[in-house]
Amino acid sequence: RTLDLQGGGAELTNALLDVGEPPVWAEESGNPHLMGGWAPVQCELSLKGLRIRGRIPEHLHGSIYLRNGPNPALEPYSLSMYHAFDGHGMIHSISFPRKDSSSSGAGYDRRYVRTRGLSRELEVGQSLFTGMRDMLPKFPLFFEHMWDKVAGCQ
Question: Per-residue pLDDT for 94 more than 60?
Answer without folding.
Answer: yes
